[in-house]
Amino acid sequence: MRSFYSCCQSSCRRIFVISTVLLGFFSSCSFAAVWTINYPKQPVQNSIHAQYIVDVLELALQKTGVRYELVESNDVLLQGKAFKLLSNNRTVNVVWAMTDDKREEDFLPIRIPLYKGLIGWRVLLVNPEKLSQLESSKLRDNYAVQGMDWPDLKILQANGFNVVSATNYDEAFTIMHRKQADMFPRSIIEVFGELAQPELTKALLIEPNFVLQYPAATYFFVNQRDVILGRLLTTGLEMAVADGSFDKLFNATYLDMLQQLRLNKRTLLTLKNPLLPINTPLADKALWYQINP
C-alpha cells in the first residue's frame, strides 16, 4: 500500500504539472493575441467594492502572464441585464455576482469567493430607540426588513426570523424610518457606504452587539462556452490565493473596516443558507474570512 506521504507527493506533482501546462498554454496565447476582458460598468461610481473587484480581476490576469486589456462597458449594466448580455457573449464576457443554483447552471462559475464570504456577514441597522429592545430580547423575536426578491429574505426566514418584505431597496429604508421593522441586516461591505448617505439612512445606526453570518459567495461568471477564459481566471485566482497576494489586496481594502466593526467582540449568530449551491468550496478555509479571536 502506498503511504499517505507518497500519495501527497504524487498529487502535488500532478497539480504542479497541470499548472505548468496551463501557464505555458496561456503564455503562448499571450504572444498571439491580447485577451480583452469586458466587464459591466457599475451603478455606483468610485465605489471601493467595484474597484476592488476590478483589482482582483487584474491580479488574476497578471498572475497568468497573459497580455490583456480591461474594458468597462459604456453604459451602466444592472445585474439582470449584464447576465442577459453574458448569455450571448455580447458587450461583456465576465460578470460578478452572488452565486446560486440557477446561475451556476446557466453560466460557468469561477469558484473563488471574491469577498471571502463577507457578503454573508451582516450587521444590523436600527433606530436608536430600538437598541434596548434588541439587547433584552431574543433577536429572532424582532422583525427584520429585506427586499421581497432578495435571497436574504428566504435565508432569514429559513433560520426562524420574522421578516417584513419591501418592494425595493429604497422602501426597505422607508419601512425602517416608519418603525415598521426593528432591524435591517446589511452586509458589512455595504453598511458604511450606506451610512455615508444621510438622506438614505437618516438616524439609523449600527447595532453594536450582534453579527449574523451565513455562507455566501460572490464569484466571477463567464459564458459556458468560454471555457478557456474560465480556466485562465481560475488559474490566476488560485495562484493569487496560494502566494498571498489575494489576501494582501483583500486586507488593504477591508481590514480597517473590519476592525471598526469589532466583530470579535460581537455575539455571532451562525445561520444556514439553504440557497447555497452544493459545489461551494466551504472546506477550503483559505478562501473564507475568519474572525481573529
CATH fold type of the largest domain: D-Maltodextrin-Binding Protein, domain 2
Question: Helix- and strand-based class?
Answer: alpha/beta
Please give the domain count. Answer: 2
Fourth-tier CATH superfamily name of the largest domain: Periplasmic binding protein-like II
Residue share in helix: 40-55%
Task: Extract low-pLDDT stretches.
Answer: 1-21
CATH architectural label of the largest domain = 3-Layer(aba) Sandwich
In angstroms, what is the radius of gyration? 21 Å
Query: What is the arithmetic mean of pLDDT?
Result: 89
Task: Enumerate how many helices there are, as a single number.
Answer: 11
Folded structure, characterized:
With 293 residues, this protein is of the alpha/beta class. It has two domains: 4-116 and 218-261, 3-Layer(aba) Sandwich (D-Maltodextrin-Binding Protein, domain 2); 119-213, Periplasmic binding protein-like II (D-Maltodextrin-Binding Protein, domain 2, 3-Layer(aba) Sandwich), CATH 3.40.190. The chain has helices spanning 4-32, 48-64, 79-87, 101-106, 131-136, 151-158, 169-177, 191-195, 198-201, 227-243, 245-261; strands spanning 35-41, 68-76, 95-98, 108-110, 121-126, 143-147, 162-166, 184-187, 205-206, 210-213, 218-222, 267-270. β6, α6 and β7 form a beta-alpha-beta unit. α2 crosses α10 and α2 (48-64) packs antiparallel against α11 (245-261). The longest helix has 29 residues, at 4-32. It is globular and about 60 Å long.
